[in-house]
Amino acid sequence: MDLHHRTVRQDVRELGELLGDVLEAQSSTQAFEAVEDLRTAAIDYRDGSLPSREPLRTTLGTLDSDLEGAAARAFTAYFELINLAEERERVRAIRRSSQAGTLADSPRATVASLVEGDADAETVQRVLDDVLIQPTFTAHPTEAHRKTVKAKLRTITTLLEGLDERRLTDAERRQSWDQLEAEVTSLWQTPQVRDRAPEPEDEARNVQWYLENTLFDVVGDTYAELEEVLADSYPEVDVPKLFEFRSWAGSDRDGNPSVTVDVTSETLDRQRSVVLSKYRDELKRLSGILSQDAAWITPGERFEASLVDDRERLPEVARDAERRYPHEFYRQKLKLMRERLERVNDVRPGGYTDAEELVDDLEAIDESLRLNDAESIADAYVEPLLRKVDTFGFALASLDLRDHQQNHTETVGELLEGRGVDYRDRDEAGRIDVLTDAIMQDADVVDLADPGDVSETAERVCERFEALREWQREYGTDAIDTYCISMTEEPSHVLEVLFLADQAGVVDLPEYSGLDVVPLLETESALDGARRIMGTLFENEAYATALDCRGDTQEIMLGYSDSNKENGFLAANWDLYRNQRRLARITDEFDVSMRLFHGRGGSISRGGGPMHEAMLALPVETVSGEIKFTEQGEAIAEKYGNPRIAERNLERMLDAQIRARRESLAGPGEPTPDAWSEAMGTMAGAARDAYQDLLDTEGFIPYFETATPITVIEDLNLGSRPASRSGERTVEDLRAIPWVFSWTQSRCIIPGWYGLATGVDAYLDDGGSMETLRKMYEHWPFFRTTLDNAAQSMARTDMEIAEVYAGLAPAELRDRFFPRIRDEYERAADLALAITDRDDLVRQDWFRESLDRRNPYVDPLNLLQTRLLARDERTPAEERTLRLTVKGIAAGMKSTG
User: Fold this and answer.
1) Which of 140, 408, 493, 628 is labelled catalytic?
2) 140 an active-site residue?
3) Do residues 651 and 727 touch, judged by C-beta distance below 8 A?
4) Are 341 and 352 in contact (CB under 8 A)?
5) 227-270, pLDDT tens digit by residue?
6) Choice among 145, 565, 598, 612 that is catalytic
7) Cβ atoms within 10 A of the Cβ of 102, count?
8) 4 is catalytic
């Protein structure tokens, strides 16, 4: 029996036809015909029926301003709908494979791998106890969809699901299509481009949406399936907490002055309100299930004691509960529990002080049900709720604070100068001495609440640390217990944050530290200096004491985006890999547990790509079981927007981490051959030189400004954070997101592959062999993943379209740069195919089908965008159309950077 009634081809065709009907009805027959002419010309060129794109260009040349706008809107809406159709196909594949028992990386496959590897119960328990996966949602890049548009797309998704999975009558099917037509019409009439930049509060709410509406519900299902399959092979193994969600939205201050103390306070308060409301709803639902008559059950000592405690704590509520449910002890207890949740953060007494108290109550109910042979009820309703409380606590997602190290250095310098201490003029050793003595002494050195006459930067930093003390007091330490330091280059940059936390009372050594201080190593100098930075900290009296208070676990963040922008794709990946191994050796030397925090972007160019494969490709010595990584922008929507896909992502990450931790416990295994590491060193060095030489060549910045739509992207209102750090036009100053976004729009994704060909050629010229590269690809997960990701970026690149964008640059700059870029691409593509022994850069059939489906529809938007960019002056209507082409291409490429 097939679980589905439709196919992706049918969805694409019928949604496209529906959009065409809406276009003609809402715009004009002329607009419909123009879009059809553009569409067919693009398809005919791609399939070889036309020798050139000239008919496509000719049609574009006949469009007036209104028709240009209609075309941009039509192709953008098309991609919005096609993305939903492809999402539906992903769900079909998951359900069919699950039904057939062939779903790879599922809990069943995970446990089977443990059994096949002869893992005993003790080993499995050790692995699970070590594993903790922490997806960390960030606001940048902000999802390109407006919230209104996202809501409409979700409605369309629900209607498609009904058509695909339900057996409908003819009348029901017609009704669904009528609703679809209404939603697509509404989508057409809704503005796609924001009139204003989103505020940090908007970004925090966007992240919260996925936590509240998807992840809250699917986490329990993920645990339940794992426990079910474990019970067959390892019945004595207990499943501990495996997931914890974190967020930077509303707390990441680096480069974003709009993220104030008030914004963070509001985020913490709103997230707690949301999660408490979710728990109250769950308890209300549970009350409808637990209607057992007291005459038929034995509550058990733990449950009875818990109920007595609540009756004493809330006597009036207890009396009301007894009147309403005179013979139903469970319902009485649940009403009291709902009231305790209502009183969290309330002036009235009796509320829960933390999530552990709620867990205790749920465990008492769970135990009582099992005493009364109601295991099925406990398993189906109580256990999933326990998992949710264990995962989300009273915070929904714990917040990480982040700021640039320069702001802390400036603040500490000003504060200590006000106390007669010279800090800024000291060398690194002198700064470390001052900070260490200040942290270890009992008396405060400065007054953060009254810092005196200091700069605006110092005032903001002082206010933040004062607020941190109050946030932890009000919301609990777990709600906000991590502070990440961007651009960490010296040990003092870490000690400065520890000093400020100490002065705020968040740290009180030697007894207590309420903060993990996390250095973000993102530049070549910081990564190469990791031994000096971390070794100095581990040997420092103050820092070692604070680390001891935090369980001797050191979190270290690795920045993928800026490392890539600075060094190029290949060199950045190699630097990150070898420095992870170096960090593992350092932490082992000092007997410190390491938790790596991977600052991965959504796109390949910024460290993105399949997370499951990336986790399995990490150096085995770095796999401690705990892993943390950022989830950004459109990647959040793609991974967590649909409940079935969200659950699948959690399962795959769990599978990868369990397998990786099992492997790491088994020992180092076969070491990577020295010849392979040397080959990577040669390739990375040459690739870095080629990439940096390109960026340093005179005229590159003007070429970038004219051959990509960077100037449009900077004004798109995509996020609350500025596109550059200081407003200067340099590659160094530009943030990684608009850097990658601009190249992606122009279909010339150099951040994802430039330098690869030069690197491989350097290795081959140095006596290396293609056979060795093929063995590296076959047997070394790091190299295989790196090359596959580069190949994916090359597959998404289109040099014909890129050449059109290059034509926007002055002729002298175009001739200087584009042939160089094209040559590197063509050689890289040939070499990638030779190493992988494939005929196609794309290794997955579904990805090739997606590219073939999308490319003919992205082409008209690219050519329309270049026509608009070439105009010296644009009308307001043309400006709107230009901005809409950026949105449309992003939807077609499924990436904003």
Assistant:
1) 140
2) yes
3) no
4) yes
5) 999 999 999 999 999 999 999 999 999 888 899 999 999 999 99
6) 565
7) 11
8) no
